[in-house]
Amino acid sequence: MIELQNISAAYGVTPVLHGVSLRADASTFLGLIGRNGAGKTTTLRSMVGLMPLAAGRVLFDGQPLAGRATHEIARLGIAYVPENRGVFPSLTVMESLTLAARPPANGATGWTLERVLDVFPRLGERRRNRSDALSGGEQQMLAIGRALLTNPRLLILDEPTEGLAPLIVREIQSVLRSLRGSGMALIVVDQNLDTVFNVADEIAVMSRGTVVAQGPSATLRADQALLNHYLGV
To answer: Rounded to two decimals, what is the model's pTM?
Structure first.
């Protein structure tokens, strides 16, 4: 599905990614972990056309994404929920969700407004509220729900549980786990390691702009020496 081939990137003259190679196939749930500044968010941004590459390629279904506008990348079936959630403050919950809705490809059963409100009932309760009147947790539910309504083949999440109350964190983790087996691929970055290890089945550890370890979630979670060295936990 999506493949990063030896990508490098820089902010101005400052290199931030150095030869990153990753792959996520259909139904793969991949988590990226690492200290702040390791290059995780930049890696995500490179997948959706928000970070120009100095070298390497990003492929989706074998097609290079270089030079494509972000809306073209979205139409290919990639949904991105950024760290700041990206909700439109002046729109109501229902307006935001309705505008995002797109039927699934090939007539497949997919995400509908009713289904999103079923997994995030709080959004139904707040349907007439403007997005800027929602709590942080409600805004995150809205951002994820809006992304799901595009019926993506790949869902990319940057810090989906950052700063949220434990009850909301568990709710979001549960929704993300429920996507397994749907055929959708998911890539998640979160400083809350519990979220990443509970959601992802494959983990890549990043340090100083490169991938230093990758493997099954259970294997890396049990490697305390690796976690202590690269994450200080």
So the answer is: 0.94
Task: Determine how β-strand 2-11 pairs with β-strand 55-60.
Answer: antiparallel
CATH number of 2-231: 3.40.50.300
- DSSP per residue over 132-191, as a string? GGS-HHHHHHHHHHHHHTT--SEEEEESTTTT--HHHHHHHHHHHHHTTTSS-EEEEE-S
- Alpha-carbon distance of 193 to 213, in angstroms, equals 16
Q: How far apart are CA 219 and CA 198, in angstroms?
A: 13
Instruction: Write the DSSP symbol of residue 130.
Output: B
Is residue 2 within 8 Å of residue 185, measured between CB atoms?
yes
The domains of the chain are located at 2-231
Contact between residue 152 and residue 79 where contact means Cβ atoms under 8 Å apart: yes
**For all residues of the chain together, what is the average pLDDT?**
94
Distance CA 94, CA 130 (A): 9
